[in-house]
Specification:
140 residues; alpha+beta; Thiol Ester Dehydrase, Chain A; 2 helices; Acyl-CoA thioesterase
Length: 140
Amino acid sequence: MTHVVDSGAGATFDIAVRWGDLDAMNHVNNTVYFRYIEEARVQLMMKLGMVPPSPRTGVLAHASLDFLRSVLYPATVRIEHKLIKVGGSSIELEVIVGDADQADVMYARGRCVLVSINPQGGSQPWTEKEREQIHSVFQG
């Protein structure tokens, strides 16, 4: 289950680790980290109005992740997106996978880039109003 955290900024999401997320080594499989981040990114895109039926959506242009520590069951991970920069039609985000119950525990850190596209699949530049909305979501 995913839920939005009331952290002042609208880019933090908690996700409960499921037993099925574990691998044979009894920790969360590395590919699952990307699914957690994907779920949080979709929630973020909803806050930004970038999901159908909107005429604008986003595609993932880049994703990278450094694994720092294993996630063990039971746990709730906290996915936090921090705005690095807003480009002409993209946003660059730092992604932190931490523990929802222990603020000092960080499982992974990475980066992703989302590109805004139109229904025809071409990049779509941000309007000034959309840029303001992006910044307001991250500033709370």
